[in-house]
Protein backbone atom coordinates (compact mmCIF):
# COMPACT_ATOMS: atom_id res chain seq x y z
CA UNK A 1 0.00 0.00 0.00
CA UNK A 2 1.34 3.46 -0.83
CA UNK A 3 2.40 5.56 2.10
CA UNK A 4 -0.33 8.02 3.05
CA UNK A 5 2.08 10.90 2.40
CA UNK A 6 1.90 10.05 -1.31
CA UNK A 7 -1.72 11.19 -1.40
CA UNK A 8 -2.97 14.77 -1.58
CA UNK A 9 -4.04 16.07 1.83
CA UNK A 10 -7.74 16.09 0.96
CA UNK A 11 -7.51 12.44 -0.09
CA UNK A 12 -5.90 11.24 3.13
CA UNK A 13 -8.16 13.38 5.28
CA UNK A 14 -11.30 12.24 3.50
CA UNK A 15 -10.76 8.51 3.19
CA UNK A 16 -7.78 7.55 5.35
CA UNK A 17 -6.75 5.60 2.26
CA UNK A 18 -7.03 1.81 2.56
CA UNK A 19 -8.39 1.79 6.09
CA UNK A 20 -11.56 3.60 5.01
CA UNK A 21 -13.36 0.59 3.53
CA UNK A 22 -17.08 1.34 3.60
CA UNK A 23 -20.13 -0.83 3.02
CA UNK A 24 -23.71 -0.41 1.90
CA UNK A 25 -26.67 -2.79 1.81
CA UNK A 26 -28.21 -3.33 -1.64
CA UNK A 27 -30.55 -5.85 -3.29
CA UNK A 28 -27.34 -7.38 -4.68
CA UNK A 29 -26.01 -7.95 -1.13
CA UNK A 30 -23.70 -5.98 1.11
CA UNK A 31 -21.20 -4.23 -1.13
CA UNK A 32 -17.94 -2.74 0.12
CA UNK A 33 -16.20 0.19 -1.49
CA UNK A 34 -13.87 3.18 -1.17
CA UNK A 35 -15.05 6.76 -1.56
CA UNK A 36 -12.20 9.23 -2.13
CA UNK A 37 -12.00 12.79 -3.42
CA UNK A 38 -14.68 15.20 -4.60
CA UNK A 39 -16.16 16.33 -7.89
CA UNK A 40 -17.95 14.42 -10.66
CA UNK A 41 -18.33 10.73 -9.79
CA UNK A 42 -15.80 8.31 -11.31
CA UNK A 43 -16.47 4.62 -10.70
CA UNK A 44 -13.57 2.14 -10.79
CA UNK A 45 -14.38 -1.51 -11.55
CA UNK A 46 -11.72 -4.15 -10.93
CA UNK A 47 -10.74 -7.24 -12.87
CA UNK A 48 -10.62 -10.90 -11.89
CA UNK A 49 -7.75 -13.21 -10.97
CA UNK A 50 -6.11 -14.60 -7.83
CA UNK A 51 -6.01 -12.13 -4.95
CA UNK A 52 -7.51 -9.25 -6.90
CA UNK A 53 -9.30 -6.36 -5.21
CA UNK A 54 -10.46 -3.01 -6.46
CA UNK A 55 -8.04 -1.32 -4.09
CA UNK A 56 -5.06 -3.27 -5.43
CA UNK A 57 -6.01 -2.54 -9.04
CA UNK A 58 -6.39 1.21 -8.59
CA UNK A 59 -4.52 2.35 -5.46
CA UNK A 60 -1.58 3.63 -7.52
CA UNK A 61 -3.61 5.94 -9.77
CA UNK A 62 -6.11 7.01 -7.13
CA UNK A 63 -4.25 10.17 -6.02
CA UNK A 64 -4.17 11.60 -9.55
CA UNK A 65 -7.88 11.02 -10.15
CA UNK A 66 -9.06 12.00 -6.65
CA UNK A 67 -7.74 15.52 -7.22
CA UNK A 68 -10.52 16.06 -9.77
CA UNK A 69 -13.16 13.40 -9.14
CA UNK A 70 -15.13 11.68 -6.42
CA UNK A 71 -13.63 8.23 -6.92
CA UNK A 72 -15.70 5.19 -6.00
CA UNK A 73 -13.84 1.87 -6.02
CA UNK A 74 -16.38 -0.97 -5.90
CA UNK A 75 -15.36 -4.37 -4.55
CA UNK A 76 -17.33 -7.01 -6.44
CA UNK A 77 -18.91 -9.94 -4.54
CA UNK A 78 -16.90 -13.15 -4.45
CA UNK A 79 -13.39 -11.70 -4.54
CA UNK A 80 -12.75 -11.68 -0.80
CA UNK A 81 -13.79 -8.15 0.20
CA UNK A 82 -17.53 -7.91 -0.49
CA UNK A 83 -19.47 -10.98 0.61
CA UNK A 84 -19.79 -13.91 -1.79
CA UNK A 85 -23.43 -14.24 -2.84
CA UNK A 86 -22.95 -17.39 -4.94
CA UNK A 87 -23.32 -17.86 -8.65
CA UNK A 88 -20.76 -16.95 -11.30
CA UNK A 89 -18.83 -13.92 -9.98
CA UNK A 90 -18.62 -12.29 -13.43
CA UNK A 91 -22.40 -12.42 -13.78
CA UNK A 92 -22.85 -11.25 -10.19
CA UNK A 93 -20.56 -8.29 -10.90
CA UNK A 94 -22.77 -7.13 -13.78
CA UNK A 95 -25.77 -7.04 -11.47
CA UNK A 96 -24.00 -5.11 -8.71
CA UNK A 97 -23.29 -1.74 -10.32
CA UNK A 98 -26.77 -0.22 -10.63
CA UNK A 99 -27.87 -1.26 -7.10
CA UNK A 100 -24.60 0.10 -5.73
CA UNK A 101 -25.09 3.49 -7.36
CA UNK A 102 -28.73 3.55 -6.27
CA UNK A 103 -27.72 2.87 -2.66
CA UNK A 104 -25.32 5.82 -2.76
CA UNK A 105 -27.82 8.10 -4.49
CA UNK A 106 -25.56 8.50 -7.54
CA UNK A 107 -27.44 9.10 -10.79
CA UNK A 108 -24.62 9.34 -13.33
CA UNK A 109 -20.98 8.28 -13.49
CA UNK A 110 -17.93 7.97 -15.66
CA UNK A 111 -16.44 4.47 -15.46
CA UNK A 112 -12.90 3.07 -15.55
CA UNK A 113 -12.97 -0.73 -15.78
CA UNK A 114 -10.00 -3.07 -15.74
CA UNK A 115 -10.36 -6.32 -17.74
CA UNK A 116 -13.51 -7.97 -16.36
CA UNK A 117 -14.47 -4.56 -14.96
CA UNK A 118 -14.35 -3.16 -18.48
CA UNK A 119 -16.83 -5.79 -19.58
CA UNK A 120 -19.06 -4.90 -16.63
CA UNK A 121 -18.77 -1.24 -17.63
CA UNK A 122 -19.82 -2.03 -21.20
CA UNK A 123 -22.80 -4.01 -19.91
CA UNK A 124 -23.80 -1.06 -17.72
CA UNK A 125 -23.37 1.38 -20.61
CA UNK A 126 -25.66 -0.72 -22.82
CA UNK A 127 -28.37 -1.19 -20.20
CA UNK A 128 -28.18 2.23 -18.54
CA UNK A 129 -27.14 4.67 -21.27
CA UNK A 130 -28.61 7.62 -19.38
CA UNK A 131 -26.45 6.93 -16.32
CA UNK A 132 -22.98 6.93 -17.90
CA UNK A 133 -20.94 9.79 -19.24
CA UNK A 134 -17.63 8.36 -20.48
CA UNK A 135 -16.27 4.82 -20.37
CA UNK A 136 -12.63 3.73 -20.12
CA UNK A 137 -11.64 0.08 -20.45
CA UNK A 138 -8.26 -1.53 -19.71
CA UNK A 139 -7.72 -4.64 -21.83
CA UNK A 140 -9.87 -7.70 -21.33
CA UNK A 141 -12.83 -7.06 -23.65
CA UNK A 142 -13.61 -8.17 -27.19
CA UNK A 143 -12.57 -11.54 -28.55
CA UNK A 144 -9.50 -13.14 -30.08
CA UNK A 145 -9.17 -12.50 -33.82
CA UNK A 146 -5.69 -13.81 -34.63
CA UNK A 147 -4.30 -15.05 -31.33
CA UNK A 148 -5.18 -18.48 -29.92
CA UNK A 149 -7.54 -18.80 -27.00
CA UNK A 150 -7.49 -19.24 -24.15
CA UNK A 151 -4.43 -17.03 -23.89
CA UNK A 152 -1.26 -17.85 -21.97
CA UNK A 153 -2.42 -15.76 -19.01
CA UNK A 154 -5.84 -17.42 -18.87
CA UNK A 155 -4.29 -20.90 -19.05
CA UNK A 156 -1.95 -20.06 -16.17
CA UNK A 157 -4.92 -18.67 -14.24
CA UNK A 158 -6.81 -21.93 -14.77
CA UNK A 159 -3.82 -23.96 -13.60
CA UNK A 160 -3.52 -21.95 -10.41
CA UNK A 161 -7.24 -22.21 -9.75
CA UNK A 162 -7.17 -25.99 -10.18
CA UNK A 163 -4.08 -26.49 -8.01
CA UNK A 164 -3.07 -23.33 -6.13
CA UNK A 165 0.65 -23.33 -5.44
CA UNK A 166 2.87 -20.35 -4.83
CA UNK A 167 4.88 -21.06 -7.99
CA UNK A 168 1.73 -21.17 -10.10
CA UNK A 169 0.73 -17.81 -8.66
CA UNK A 170 4.15 -16.38 -9.53
CA UNK A 171 3.90 -17.78 -13.07
CA UNK A 172 0.51 -16.16 -13.53
CA UNK A 173 1.67 -12.81 -12.09
CA UNK A 174 4.63 -12.84 -14.46
CA UNK A 175 2.24 -13.26 -17.39
CA UNK A 176 0.37 -10.12 -16.32
CA UNK A 177 3.27 -7.73 -16.81
CA UNK A 178 5.91 -6.84 -19.38
CA UNK A 179 8.43 -5.81 -16.70
CA UNK A 180 8.66 -8.79 -14.37
CA UNK A 181 10.51 -6.77 -11.73
CA UNK A 182 7.04 -5.52 -10.80
CA UNK A 183 6.29 -8.98 -9.38
CA UNK A 184 7.76 -8.26 -5.96
CA UNK A 185 7.68 -10.44 -2.86
CA UNK A 186 5.18 -8.01 -1.35
CA UNK A 187 2.86 -8.40 -4.35
CA UNK A 188 3.18 -12.18 -4.28
CA UNK A 189 2.46 -12.40 -0.57
CA UNK A 190 -0.58 -10.12 -0.56
CA UNK A 191 -2.04 -11.92 -3.57
CA UNK A 192 -1.29 -15.35 -2.11
CA UNK A 193 -3.05 -14.60 1.18
CA UNK A 194 -6.34 -13.66 -0.46
CA UNK A 195 -6.17 -16.09 -3.38
CA UNK A 196 -5.89 -19.09 -1.06
CA UNK A 197 -8.69 -18.01 1.28
CA UNK A 198 -11.11 -20.97 1.01
CA UNK A 199 -14.21 -18.91 0.19
CA UNK A 200 -12.41 -16.74 -2.36
CA UNK A 201 -10.81 -19.79 -3.98
CA UNK A 202 -14.19 -21.49 -4.23
CA UNK A 203 -15.59 -18.44 -6.03
CA UNK A 204 -12.58 -18.41 -8.38
CA UNK A 205 -13.23 -22.05 -9.27
CA UNK A 206 -16.76 -21.12 -10.32
CA UNK A 207 -15.11 -18.84 -12.87
CA UNK A 208 -11.82 -20.39 -13.89
CA UNK A 209 -11.91 -24.03 -12.86
CA UNK A 210 -11.44 -26.13 -15.99
CA UNK A 211 -14.86 -27.79 -15.65
CA UNK A 212 -16.58 -24.44 -15.11
CA UNK A 213 -14.72 -22.87 -18.02
CA UNK A 214 -15.64 -25.76 -20.34
CA UNK A 215 -19.27 -25.54 -19.21
CA UNK A 216 -19.34 -21.81 -19.95
CA UNK A 217 -17.86 -22.35 -23.42
CA UNK A 218 -20.41 -25.07 -24.17
CA UNK A 219 -23.25 -22.85 -22.99
CA UNK A 220 -22.16 -19.98 -25.24
CA UNK A 221 -21.82 -22.29 -28.25
CA UNK A 222 -25.31 -23.68 -27.69
CA UNK A 223 -27.04 -20.40 -26.90
CA UNK A 224 -28.96 -18.30 -29.39
CA UNK A 225 -28.13 -15.16 -27.42
CA UNK A 226 -25.50 -12.90 -29.00
CA UNK A 227 -22.07 -13.09 -27.40
CA UNK A 228 -20.92 -10.06 -25.38
CA UNK A 229 -18.51 -8.85 -28.06
CA UNK A 230 -21.34 -8.92 -30.63
CA UNK A 231 -23.36 -6.35 -28.67
CA UNK A 232 -20.79 -3.60 -28.36
CA UNK A 233 -22.41 -1.57 -31.13
CA UNK A 234 -25.08 -0.74 -28.54
CA UNK A 235 -22.64 1.33 -26.45
CA UNK A 236 -23.49 5.00 -27.00
CA UNK A 237 -21.08 6.45 -24.44
CA UNK A 238 -17.78 7.93 -25.66
CA UNK A 239 -15.33 5.11 -24.99
CA UNK A 240 -11.57 4.97 -24.56
CA UNK A 241 -10.08 1.51 -25.00
CA UNK A 242 -6.64 1.26 -23.37
CA UNK A 243 -4.35 -1.70 -23.94
CA UNK A 244 -0.86 -2.91 -23.20
CA UNK A 245 0.88 -3.78 -26.44
CA UNK A 246 2.46 -6.81 -24.76
CA UNK A 247 -0.67 -8.11 -23.00
CA UNK A 248 -0.41 -11.91 -22.64
CA UNK A 249 -3.79 -12.25 -20.93
CA UNK A 250 -5.96 -10.43 -23.46
CA UNK A 251 -3.80 -10.00 -26.58
CA UNK A 252 -4.02 -6.76 -28.52
CA UNK A 253 -6.01 -8.24 -31.41
CA UNK A 254 -8.96 -8.52 -29.02
CA UNK A 255 -9.29 -4.73 -29.27
CA UNK A 256 -10.19 -4.82 -32.96
CA UNK A 257 -13.90 -5.60 -32.67
CA UNK A 258 -14.58 -3.13 -29.81
CA UNK A 259 -12.59 -0.45 -31.63
CA UNK A 260 -14.58 -0.97 -34.83
CA UNK A 261 -18.07 -1.61 -33.46
CA UNK A 262 -18.41 0.81 -30.52
CA UNK A 263 -19.58 3.88 -32.46
CA UNK A 264 -17.63 6.51 -30.48
CA UNK A 265 -14.52 4.54 -29.49
CA UNK A 266 -10.84 5.34 -29.61
CA UNK A 267 -7.91 3.09 -28.80
CA UNK A 268 -4.69 3.92 -26.97
CA UNK A 269 -1.92 1.31 -26.86
CA UNK A 270 0.88 1.56 -24.30
CA UNK A 271 4.26 0.11 -25.37
CA UNK A 272 6.29 -2.19 -23.13
CA UNK A 273 3.17 -2.88 -21.10
CA UNK A 274 1.20 -5.98 -20.16
CA UNK A 275 -2.32 -6.46 -18.81
CA UNK A 276 -2.15 -3.89 -16.00
CA UNK A 277 -1.82 -0.65 -17.97
CA UNK A 278 -2.87 1.44 -14.95
CA UNK A 279 0.06 -0.02 -12.99
CA UNK A 280 2.76 -0.65 -15.58
CA UNK A 281 2.17 2.51 -17.64
CA UNK A 282 0.92 4.53 -14.66
CA UNK A 283 2.00 8.06 -15.63
CA UNK A 284 0.98 7.70 -19.27
CA UNK A 285 -2.30 6.07 -18.27
CA UNK A 286 -3.15 8.92 -15.91
CA UNK A 287 -2.34 11.51 -18.56
CA UNK A 288 -4.33 9.84 -21.35
CA UNK A 289 -7.38 8.98 -19.25
CA UNK A 290 -7.60 12.34 -17.47
CA UNK A 291 -7.45 14.10 -20.83
CA UNK A 292 -10.20 11.85 -22.22
CA UNK A 293 -12.47 12.26 -19.18
CA UNK A 294 -11.99 16.03 -19.22
CA UNK A 295 -12.93 16.36 -22.90
CA UNK A 296 -16.50 17.57 -22.49
TrEMBL record:
The GO terms describing molecular function are:
hydrolase activity
Per UniProt, the keywords (alphabetical) are: Hydrolase
Q: Which domain of life is it from?
A: Bacteria
Domain AB hydrolase-1 span(s) in chain numbering: 40-281
Q: Which residues form a coiled coil?
A: none
Q: Can you name a GO cellular component term?
A: membrane
> InterPro entries, alphabetically?
AB_hydrolase_1, AB_hydrolase_fold, AB_hydrolase_sf
PANTHER family, from UniProt?
AB HYDROLASE SUPERFAMILY PROTEIN YCLE (PTHR43798:SF31), MONOACYLGLYCEROL LIPASE (PTHR43798)
UniProt name for this protein: Alpha/beta hydrolase
Q: What is the lineage of its organism?
A: Bacteria, Bacillati, Actinomycetota, Actinomycetes, Mycobacteriales
Amino acid sequence: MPDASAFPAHVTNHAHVENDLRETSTPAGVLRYYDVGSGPVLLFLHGSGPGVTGWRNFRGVLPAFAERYRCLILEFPGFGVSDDVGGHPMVTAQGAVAPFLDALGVDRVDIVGNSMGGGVGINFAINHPDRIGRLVTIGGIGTNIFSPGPSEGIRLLQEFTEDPTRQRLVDWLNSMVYDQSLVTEQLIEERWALATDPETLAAARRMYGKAAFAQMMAFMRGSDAPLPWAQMHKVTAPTLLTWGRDDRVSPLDMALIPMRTIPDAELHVFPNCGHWAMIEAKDAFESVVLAFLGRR
